[in-house]
Amino acid sequence: MSANEKDILLKVAQSDPAAFAILFKEYSPKVYTLGLSLTKSSSTAEEMVQEIFMKVWENRRQLSDIDFFKSWLRVICTNACYNHLRKKAN
């Protein structure tokens, strides 16, 4: 993780909306792409982006403890997509 990325995560953890906007702009395309590859639906992938970044904001205080944000975000995205697909199947 770059020092700049760690600084952004620390600012988000302190409830800085500008830092969160930077984080969203940087990572939302990656989350969308992963969501699309897992769900095969662009509308579901868009929902996943919103849901995942809501979770990031809601759990922002934990961000200062995360060393590998990209991996953490990927796990959250994967789990959210699989949970969505399970609910849809039922």
> How much helix is in the residues?
over 70%
Based on Cα principal axes, name the global outline: elongated
Note the beta-strand portion.
under 5%
Order of helices and strands: HHHH
The overall strand count is 0
> Major sheet: size, sense and barrel closure?
none
What's the N-to-C terminus distance?
39 Å
Computed over alpha carbons, the radius of gyration is 13 Å
Mean pLDDT: 93
Number of helices: 4
- Spans of 5+ residues with little confidence (pLDDT < 50)? none
Helix and strand composition category: mainly alpha
Give the secondary structure arrangement, pairings included.
Layout: H1 3-13, H2 17-39, H3 42-58, H4 69-89
Helix pairs in contact: 1-2, 2-3, 2-4, 3-4
Key phrases:
90 residues, mainly alpha
